[in-house]
Design brief:
The protein contains 31 helices and 20 strands. By secondary structure, it is α/β, with parallel strands linked by helices. The structure holds thiamine diphosphate and 2-acetamido-2-deoxy-beta-D-glucopyranose (2 copies). Pathway: Metabolic intermediate biosynthesis; 1-deoxy-D-xylulose 5-phosphate biosynthesis; 1-deoxy-D-xylulose 5-phosphate from D-glyceraldehyde 3-phosphate and pyruvate: step 1/1.
Length: 753
Amino acid sequence: MKFSSSLLAILLAPGANAFAPIRHAGVIQRSEPATSTSLWDTPSGPPYSGPSSKPILDSVNYPHDMKRLDMKELKQLAHELRWELIEAVSKTGGHFSSSLGVIELTVALHYVFDMPEDDIIWDVAHQCYPHKMLTGRRHKFPTLRQLGGISGFCKRKESEYDSFGAGHSSTSISAAQGMSVAKSMLNKRRNNCIAVIGDGAITGGMAYEAMNNAGYLSSRMIVVLNDNGQVSLPTGTQTAGGVRPASQLSAYTSNLIVSKPFQDFRDFAKSLNRLFPENVQDVNKRIDEYARGLVTGGTIFEELGFFYVGPIDGHDLENMVPILEKLRDSDSSKPVLLHIKTTKGYGYPPAMAASDRMHGVGKFDIATGIQVKGKAASPSLTSIFANALIDAATDDRAVVGITAAMPGGTGMDIFGRRFPKRTFDVGIAEQHAVTFAAGMACEGLKPFCCIYSTFMQRGYDQVVHDVAIQNLPVRMILDRAGVVGNDGPTHHGCYDLAYLGCIPNLTIMSPSDELELKNMVMTCAAFNDGPTVLRYPRGVGYGVEKLQSLFGYEFENGEIPAKGTPIEIGKGRIIRRPGGVRALSEHSPTNGSKSSRMGAASRGLLKEHRVAILSLGTRLSEALIAADDAEAADKDIAVTVADARFMKPLDEDLIRELADENGIIITVEEGSIGGFGDHVLHFLALDGALDDGDLKFRPMVLPDTYFEAATQYEQYEMAGLNSHHIMENILRLVRKGVSSKKVEVPELVEIEQ
Ligand SMILES: Cc1ncc(C[n+]2csc(CCOP(=O)(O)OP(=O)(O)O)c2C)c(N)n1
Ligand SMILES: *[C@@H]1O[C@H](CO)[C@@H](O)[C@H](O)[C@H]1NC(C)=O
Ligand SMILES: *[C@@H]1O[C@H](CO)[C@@H](O)[C@H](O)[C@H]1NC(C)=O
């Protein structure tokens, strides 16, 4: 009841219209400059530079070292911490401006509460750097997000100060609530559980589920809503909702301007009455109503059963510290929502000025904020996808694009610039995005629902129940499939092939190169008889030279075709025949006939020395190199390389043919156990190909473990999925006279924390 009435409140908020441009209250006002702004708040420059020494920060290794500080020293600590963060991230890269925005909050929370006994749960935890610096990990920042280093997110095994691991959003309120209920069931002396959640992360459904339940259970906990007016990762993307990220709640809270409500702490003390039993409340009713007048912004949260405080200036330590102390010392069991307003990138002008607020950065120059750019790489697969989708949308007015708060990451920013009215940013709401797409498909639109592989995990039942069972032609575009590098285990897109492969009638494809990506976008656009999945990794295109020399493409005019063409659903392709022949440059279709498929070079070779590599996705290039190297290493070996293109439906004819002609089949993919290799093996088994025991089969998949932060290359090294691993596998499997019982899984580097 409470839940739906609050949702109604959101929906019925004046002017509520999901796609109306969001009104925006403009800059956040600070309370009296004298109390809130310090002389360090707005450095002038460029060049920007920090303090030459950090005496207070040097004296604080753990939160208990802060307890003796006075307000002036706390402010100094915040200043030193901010510059420590700027200096650290300038050398490693990482998430940046979200941490800058919570410097004062972090200082205030650690000053008022006592971790690790008290729990502070950072939602997403991309803003946890200052927290890590104040909890014994300042000296580890040179290793941030690198192999063997500290994580860019909170992680329980890294520190007892990391109450809860994260990386994906909107989980903090549920986790805090679970901890709070457990503490009270276990009769713990203290029960302080604080969830810190951004106005972006609070758009995720879980946050509402938890708030609804918290009010009902009367869990004692504090939710700090860190409201910086940025719901999506900011890219200034045009969408059907305008350039502001679409969230009615954000529009609503941004109308709540920080004034001076809590400068007089008597006001706050009066409003605290609502935390006490009702008879006390009655006495103070009129005062209470007055207090309520100051906090009208809390209506939505109050309907969910929260005691609402705010909004207050989240950069104002003098205001925040006493409020947090009062909340800590209240013995109420009512959940509290403390609404703070902050500025993303606060205190570092280049971040505040940047269109993306310097959300995630590479190394940069502190004096100017200019990021060190690597040498001009080929276009990213993301941008190639976006441009292919623009081509599809130009041909077909039914094509629309959907993102869940990741316009830049998914290429929807590029698409949105061309087709703003056909681009929808729904907030951090993957479940909603999928079902929203399903609804659009019911009406005949062709929705491309563009969500990272890892975040699609959130929308799983929606994929099964709303899309697949109803056979609706939703195109699910999973960028960042495979390992992703420095974000680490929470962000790898390893599981999609396993979790989607088991869903009946889903078409699942994965391109091996940038031209295939374009072709598959067109394939998705053209196929309207059911749902499709297109998954591809974080990466860049190979460029025309490599496509010609390694893959064997023969392009007219020596250029990659600008526009993709649909390919046949469920049809793979042979890329390389024994002897190094590249099949793509054999023009005659008669060359596809069974007898000549093997190529002349393998004639006369023993079947047990004939190897087929069947690849799905961009490991194909590694497979091609491995095939060339294996044949060079042993002239008795003949390797055929095929690109499956589809995991569902499998190209059964191709697999049968490979099994007939070869004694060994190796599958390669960028995915976990349970994916492509298992589907091929399952098919071979049921088809009888394994019955007479003369076919060896080796699936090469990501090992059954979590890959910590490292570069993508290092992760594929550890996973054993680079070309030399494939070649070693081939040699081991054909080695004459040597039994080849087990594929050696390379030793994983133990991460020291
Ligand atoms: C389930 C999920 N979807 C998408 C993301 C990607 N993501 C990381 S941070 C972020 C924006 C978070 O905004 P907010 O909570 O307001 O924090 P801010 O960075 O503004 O401080 C998004 C969309 C995610 N981490 N988890
Ligand atoms: C499966 O997909 C095909 C199109 O590929 C469609 O014709 C068929 O109806 C679907 N089956 C079910 C049970 O939805
Ligand atoms: C068929 O492939 C062979 C290489 O295997 C090539 O030499 C030949 O030219 C191709 N035939 C035609 C008609 O293109």
